[in-house]
Design goal:
- This protein is α+β, with helices and mostly antiparallel strands.
- The chain has a single domain, classed as Hypothetical upf0131 protein ytfp, CATH 3.10.490.10.
- It is 26% helix and 29% strand.
- It has a 4-stranded antiparallel sheet with strand order 1-2-6-3. A 3-stranded antiparallel sheet has the order 5-4-9, with no helix packed on it.
- Helix 1 packs antiparallel against helix 2 and helix 1 crosses helix 4 (110-120).
- The longest helix has 12 residues, at 22-33.
- The radius of gyration is 16 Å and the shape is globular.
């Protein structure tokens, strides 16, 4: 895993002058802990909202040659909130307070991960460990808890796609 650091550093050093340097630490940590497939040179990523197949930001994955792995569900330990055009998935501390959500797992080439993290992950969204229904943890989109104060809880829909469909 330590061999990945130079790749991430090289990707980020070219953009460090225009971005806060703290991104280097965040991305470095995400890369060290990611579900990396060295033989394929890719990393799995769980997407929960507008990056899903057929939704407006899916091109950000496909433009970087990411490939669809599977549709699945999270473990029932999250709540989902609408932050306008994107959802925030928040893990719940209380037992039985969560819902399982429809999500997708995508595989992204390692040499594209840095660009995606810098350009495709905007606060208050972040990347962290997402617990799937099969018990595995995969890096994926989460939301920061501060951002959901007063936000609409859309957990009853079971996923972002169902919520968006209900609004049209």
């Amino acid at each position: 895993m330590m061999a990945l650091r130079p790749v991430v550093s090289k990707i980020l050093l070219t953009q460090c002058r225009t971005r806060k340097c703290c991104f280097r630490t965040i991305v470095g940590r995400a890369m060290e802990e990611a579900d990396v497939h060295p033989s394929q040179g890719s990393m799995d990523l769980v997407v929960v909202g507008a990056h899903m197949t057929g939704l407006p930001l899916n091109h950000q994955l496909t433009d970087l040659h990411a490939s669809f792995v599977k549709a699945c569900k999270t473990a029932p330990v999250y709540r989902m909130y609408s932050l306008g055009p994107r959802p925030a998935l928040i893990r719940q501390h209380e037992k039985d307070a969560g819902v399982a959500f429809a999500v997708e797992v995508w595989s992204m080439p390692l040499n594209k991960v840095g660009a995606f993290l810098l350009n495709g992950v905007k606060p208050p969204l972040c990347i962290g460990d997402v617990l799937l229904e099969d018990g595995t943890e995969v890096k994926g989109f989460l939301g920061e808890a501060y951002a959901v104060q007063g936000a609409e809880d859309v957990s009853a829909y079971g996923g972002w796609r169902a919520y968006v469909s209900s609004r049209s």
